[in-house]
Structure formats: C-alpha cells, structure tokens
Specification:
single chain, alpha+beta, Nuclear Transport Factor 2, Chain: A, Glucose Permease (Domain IIA), five-stranded antiparallel sheet, 10 helices, binds zinc ion
C-alpha cells in the first residue's frame, strides 16, 4: 500500500462521513456483543495495518516506472510518489532547467490546524497565503481541512509557494501551481477504476468471523448485515452452516486498491431459507437501493400510527408536567387515546425483544425492526398471547390491546420510536422509505440485475459443490 491508500483513509475522516463511520462502529460493537470477539477483531485489524505500512516504506519504486520529466507532470504525480522520491525528482528537474532548488514537503493536518499554521510550519511567507486564497474558487476547499488530511507543498528557499497539492476526497484533488508568476488552482478527478469481486463463506459461529475468514473487509460485512438486517438478526438468528455469497466492487486508483465499493448483489442462507438482494439505481432520481429479485425493497416500511385512536392525548416533548407524578419530565413518545381493548399493531416487520412490565409504563412490548429501529408500546391491557420474546411479527399484526396499566390517567397507547437507541418523535420522524421498483422501471431492473443474479447462481452452485466435496472427504 502506498501513500495513496493512506491518504484515502485520511480523507475518509472528513466530518460528513464521521457520523456514518461512528454509526457503523456502534452497530459492529452491538453485533459483536455476546460473541466476545470485539477485542480479538480490533487487534487483528491493527496488526494487519501495521504490517502493511512496514512493507510500504521498505518497498522501493519499481525501476520501470516512467519518470516525470516536467515540473507539471511531477506535480500531478506528486501524491503517488513517496516524499523522498518526489524530492529527488524535483531536484533533477530544477538542476536540468537551471532553476533554484525547490523543496516538496508534506504536512499532516493536526486537530485545530489551519492553513496559516501549516504555512508557518512550512516556512512559507504569510503573504503567500493571501495570494493562494485569491487564486480562484477552487481553493475554497482549503478553508475546511480536516485532521489527518495530507497537504504537500513545494516552496523555494525564499519562502515562495510554487505548488500545492491536496486530496479533497478519494475522487478529486486540488492542484495549485505557479504559472508565469501567478498561482493557478485547478481541481482534478482521480481516475477511479471499479472492479468486481466476490466472496463466499459458511458460518461456524458468527457472520463476522466467517466473513473475516473469506477476506471480506469490515465495511462490506457491515453493509451485508445492513442489507439483510431487516430479515435476519445477525446475533440471534444465525445458525451454524448458514452461508453467504457477496458480489461487490473494489475501487482502484493508479492500479492500487483504495477501498471496497458497493455490494452489487448478495445471497444469505439462514436456517435453510435463502434471502437475495440486488443493488439497483432508479434512473429517475439516481438513488441506489437494495431490492429482492422481484423488485421489493429490502428495507421494510413503518406504519405512522400503530393504533386506531380517538385523539392524540400527549405529544412528544422534552419537558412536560406529569399529571400523576406531579413533576416535570420529558415525554419521549406519543399518547394515543383509544378505547380499552383496541388492537395495537406492530408499526413494522420485526421481532419481539421485550414483553413484560416496566415500572410506570405498565405492560410493555418492544419490537426491533432491522438493526437501527425499535418501537415501544406501553400501558397495554393484554398482549397477543401467541407472541413471546423472539417471535417475528409482521407490519400491522395485532401485538397487544390498549389499556391503562402502569401510571396512566385513562386508557391510551404510549408509543415510542427509537433510531439507534435514541428517542425520536413518532409523528415527525423520517421513516425509511421502502418503495418497490416503480413498475415503469421493472423491465430495466430485470435487464440490469439479471447478469448479477446469474453470477450469484453460479457462485452459490460452486459453493454447494465445494461444500458437498468437503463433506464426502471427511
Ligand atoms: Zn405517554
């Protein structure tokens, strides 16, 4: 792995992606809980990274690599070269052109850093920063630099900025060069090549260990778990012998893998039942989602209201006066007044994760939907007797009946909606969309996804044959 990959990794730290990354980690930790593999897994990851980095520094550039001959070429190539390589080549160019020698330097942005501080560290005159910031709209990106970003600057011995290169993200980079005395800024796109790859695995104890064994990165595992998370609980539903096949993209820049891309199609066989998903981009809005082979969304819908109510007796608030407890407390749900015994419906497909009494809430049922969402139903009179903790429920299914158990002034349903464990207002929360492929795009859907399903067929057949062989040999 060269600097490119490291830079890419640092560009992933950009703030708009941080929440996402954190969410994924939370999910990963949650999913690992009970398996006890968090520590083992983290260790393996860091060891692998370290060894890769060690190899990098030791590996010299291959001799046949074309050597940049002009300053322009060199500047453009400047991120694919190690710093000493870059300096050595700059020296050759400067000497050949009888120019004063200039020096490339690399700076890793620290927390609280800005360009002014960075220039000071680089020994570049402060006026140069003004000149740089006036060199065009393209340089505005430098106002928002992030810790661990890499910036390379070329300056002469008088402290004059000659060139600057900044990787904006894994798709584009900023290049500033001094041309005939003036700084010119341009944004270039990296050439990203997308390759397809696949992996299969059989589960022995957990999806994560099986996926690791098949060489799948954590990002792909998490994506796989997200896609099937509405249908399969990856902690509780997993059985020994469950298996998966995943077709996914790998992104390459300058011939080197920089990251995994999207999952294109996947199959998961859980307890003998096969689930399949494919990625499809709606040509109208350009949104990509995962669908079943017949075009249904892998994400499941939610009912906005889980009960036929007469009125909303209390809304979601951060602070309200509690009529029975006589004190101010927040109300983290919605109260729907309804006749005692009115059926309460599950807001979405999911699984019962709690059934029982919970203090002032009285009789409560909690349903988990996919990996992110859960809904809570309180003050119940009775439950649907067929449901136990672990039971699967479908959207609209009667799960209980309205009552006034616990601290309630009258019969009503207290309903809570949680996303990643935190309360959201059920009346306003943005519910996941789960529209099927629009009928006018079904032909396009079938045309574009059939090669992926054909490949999936082939891969799962190969896996089956391989598994059968192993069992014969044993
Ligand atoms: Zn309430």
């Amino acid at each position: 792995m060269s600097l490119i990959s490291k830079d890419f990794r640092s560009s992933q730290q950009h703030s708009h992606q941080k929440g996402y990354v954190r969410l994924r980690w939370t999910l990963l930790v949650i999913t690992f809980a009970g398996i006890g593999a968090v520590v083992a897994n983290t260790n393996t990851g860091s060891v692998q990274n370290n060894s890769e980095l060690t190899v990098d520094t030791a590996t010299a550039l291959p001799a046949f690599e074309p050597v940049a001959t002009t300053a322009d070429d060199l500047a453009r190539e400047s991120f694919s070269l190690s710093l000493p390589e870059l300096q050595a080549r700059q020296k050759i160019i400067d000497q050949a052109n009888n120019l004063n020698s200039k020096k490339w330097r690399e700076f890793i942005v620290k927390p609280g850093d800005n360009l002014a501080r960075l220039f000071k560290r680089a020994g570049i005159k402060p006026q140069q920063l003004d000149e740089l910031m006036k060199s065009g709209d393209e340089v505005k990106t430098l106002r928002r630099i992030f810790p661990k970003d890499t910036i390379r600057v070329l300056s002469d011995d008088k402290g004059q900025l000659q060139a600057l290169r900044y990787d904006i993200d894994h798709k584009s980079y900023l290049m500033v060069e001094r041309e005939q005395g003036a700084l010119i800024a341009k944004t270039y796109n990296h050439e990203i090549e997308t390759r397809h790859t696949h992996a299969s695995g059989v589960i022995d104890s957990s999806l994560f260990l099986a996926a690791q064994k098949s060489g799948i990165s954590q990002n792909v595992i998490m994506e796989l778990a997200n896609i099937f998370g509405w249908d399969i609980d990856f902690v509780l539903d997993i059985r020994k012998g469950d298996r998966f096949t995943v077709l996914y993209e790998e992104l390459y820049r300058d011939g080197e893998k920089i990251s995994d891309g999207n999952i294109l199609a996947a199959e998961f066989i859980n307890n003998g039942k096969a689930y399949r998903a494919v990625r499809y981009t709606n040509p109208q809005n350009n949104r990509s989602e995962y669908f079943t082979p017949d075009g249904k969304s892998m994400r499941k819908a939610f009912l906005r209201t889980p009960v036929n109510f007469t009125r909303i007796s209390s809304r979601f608030t951060v602070n309200r006066y509690h009529p029975i407890l006589h004190k101010f407390r927040s109300h983290k749900g919605v109260d729907y007044a309804a006749k005692r015994g009115t059926p309460v419906h599950s807001a979405g497909d999911g699984k019962v994760i709690f059934k029982g009494k919970k203090g002032g809430y009285g009789k409560v049922m909690i349903i988990q939907h996919g990996s992110k969402y859960s809904t809570l139903y309180a003050h119940l009179k009775t439950y649907n007797r067929k449901l136990k903790v672990g039971s699967k429920v479908t959207q609209g299914q009667t799960i209980a009946y309205v009552g006034s158990s616990g601290l309630a002034t009258g019969p009503h349903l207290h309903y809570e909606f949680r996303v990643n464990g935190s309360h959201r207002n059920p009346l306003t929360v943005k519910l996941p969309v789960s529209n099927p492929v629009p009928s006018r795009y079904m032909a396009d859907f079938e045309l574009s996804t059939s090669p992926l399903f054909a490949q999936l067929d082939l891969l799962t057949r190969t896996q089956q044959v391989a598994l059968a062989d192993t069992s014969i040999n044993q």
